[in-house]
């Protein structure tokens, strides 16, 4: 595995995939999910749930119903990051975002590609995913993360902006 800063600086959103029928190894998926559980959460409530989708009909249905997740047609796996709002009403969004970042970094470390496709806060998308996957009302999907083998060369963007760094206050 690559060193941490290389993974962080190299992380990119991959939207084009090849080998859509090639499965992600179970050991790799387990390591990615374990990294998600290592994320920080407010008061350590860990309100997250992770749904691994590897059935073609469900991936295609998600692709049909989510406007910015058409790449699901070309991957063998997706992870849906959800929150139990009965566990955390106030901080579940940031907790699940931290877990999502760990997933995205882990995917990068394994040489795979992924992209965060938003479900929350769009009520129509939330309802669609809840119905499709038979989720209880208190389980809110934050995003769907297609994971696969990148097609072509994807390059990370240098997003550093010195003017947004402040020391000891605002300017």
Number of strands: 6
Number of helices: 5
* Class by alpha and beta content: alpha+beta
Low-confidence stretches: none
What is the residue-averaged pLDDT? 96
Structure description:
With 171 residues, the chain is α+β, with helices and mostly antiparallel strands. The protein has a single domain (14-151), classed as NADH Oxidase. 34% of the residues lie in helices and 19% in strands. Strands 1, 2, 3, 4, 5 and 6 form a 6-stranded antiparallel β-sheet that branches. Helix 1 (4-10) crosses helix 4, helix 2 (26-37) packs antiparallel against helix 4 and helix 3 packs antiparallel against helix 5 (123-133). The N and C termini lie far apart (39 Å). The mean pLDDT is 96.
Features of the shown structure:
alpha+beta, NADH Oxidase, 6-stranded antiparallel β-sheet, 5 helices, 34% helix
List the helices and strands and how they pair.
Layout: H1 4-10, E1 17-18, H2 26-37, E2 48-53, H3 56-65, E3 77-84, H4 92-109, E4 113-114, E5 117-118, H5 123-133, E6 139-150
Antiparallel strand pairs: 1-6, 2-3, 3-6, 4-6, 5-6
Provide a concise account of the structure shown.
The chain contains five helices and six strands; from the N terminus they run αβαβαβαββαβ. With 171 residues, it is α+β, with helices and mostly antiparallel strands. α3 (56-65) runs antiparallel to α5 (123-133).
